[in-house]
Amino acid sequence: REKPVALRGINKYFCVSLQGGVNDEVTLAAYITIALLEVPLPVTHSVVRNALFCLETAANQKENHVYTKALLAYAFALAGNRDKRKALLDSLEKEAVRKDGSVHWQRPGKEPETDLPFRRYRAPSAEVEMTAYVLLAQLTSQPAPAQEELASASLIAKWISSQQNPNGGFSSTQ
């Protein structure tokens, strides 16, 4: 049976440059779950509950990409799952790049940053996004974030602000 015309290609990205770090079902499911929780739908809603169950299963995989971990950490922060949030943030902490008094995350196997003459290096949009998701996960905490989380968050915010272009925008639309 053929899909209705309106649904053809629903699982395809029409503009790959807008895809960001989403590259598999887990990251896409985390992204959608985050959107549902931000609506806000309660964690008791059947769709959210089922999504979180799937994400918990995925979070237990050791080979998750750093972008996926960042999304999962924020999803569990929104859901109020402090244990999963903390475990993912602890894992992300081990992969953090510390440079010039700031903290950020980058894709594994990426070439080191280089500043060109008269032009400052700007990270790819996926790295700005994943670093921003880690920041959101750190600041989304019940009760309020602890002092050490706020100190860490300020180092992340410093890096994110350094990625702004001269007009105040970012390479990412996220």
UniProtKB/TrEMBL annotation:
- The record places domain Alpha-macroglobulin-like TED at 13-174
What name appears for this protein in its UniProt entry? Answer: PZP protein
Q: Which gene encodes it?
A: Pzp_0
Q: Which domain of life is it from?
A: Eukaryota
Lineage at the top is: Eukaryota, Metazoa, Chordata, Craniata, Vertebrata
The organism encoding this protein is: Emberiza fucata
Name the GO cellular-component terms: extracellular space
